[in-house]
Design a protein that fits this description.
Helix content is 48%, strand content 0%. The protein is mostly helical and 165 residues long. It has a domain of 52 residues. Helix 3 packs antiparallel against helix 4.
């Protein structure tokens, strides 16, 4: 839209018209350098690489560093044991940090003895150290949410009595 209805509409990509609407600059202005733009060029005519044809560098990499032979059954079993060991170790460390109270609760439920008292004392120290880091807060938040949902009652239902589970 223009302010003057007699003006022609503005094209989305206007081309240079003869006179500039801006005042001339002081001094001589150099002309634009000749462009390398080809008016008849269509970017959709450019050749594209077929998806099944590999890139030249990838082909060179496969030539220079060919993949090794596939592993035998013993190699596959060793790889699987390594992967399983890493997962078990990672989960153990995760649970030691974020679920330390479970060790403490477990040790309190066992019959008294030298091993259980040692585990209980170690777990008490461990839980105190983890609490200083704040790693016990996610477990406590989940526990509080569970207890809050467990305490919900339907309208008209009597509140939960203590000792009822």
């Amino acid at each position: 839209m223009t302010d003057h209805p007699e003006d022609p509409p503005v094209e989305p990509f206007p081309t240079a018209t003869g006179a500039s609407p801006f005042p001339p600059l002081e001094g001589e202005v150099p002309a634009d350098p000749p462009s390398d733009w080809i008016e008849t060029a269509n970017p959709h005519d450019l050749p594209t690489r077929h998806p099944l044809v590999p890139e030249p560098l990838a082909a060179l990499g496969r030539f220079a560093f060919p993949p090794g032979p596939p592993p035998d059954e013993e190699g596959v079993a060793a790889r699987d044991r390594r992967w399983t060991s890493h997962v078990i170790l990672l989960v153990t460390v995760f649970l030691l940090v974020f679920n330390a109270a479970s060790i403490q609760n477990w040790s309190r439920q066992q019959a008294p003895g030298w091993v259980t008292s040692t585990v209980q004392q170690l777990s008490d120290v461990w839980v105190a150290q983890i609490a200083q880091l704040g790693a016990d807060q996610p477990r406590q938040a989940v526990r509080d949410a569970y207890e809050g949902l467990h305490a919900l009652r339907f309208p008209g239902q009597a509140p939960e009595k203590k000792g009822e589970d």
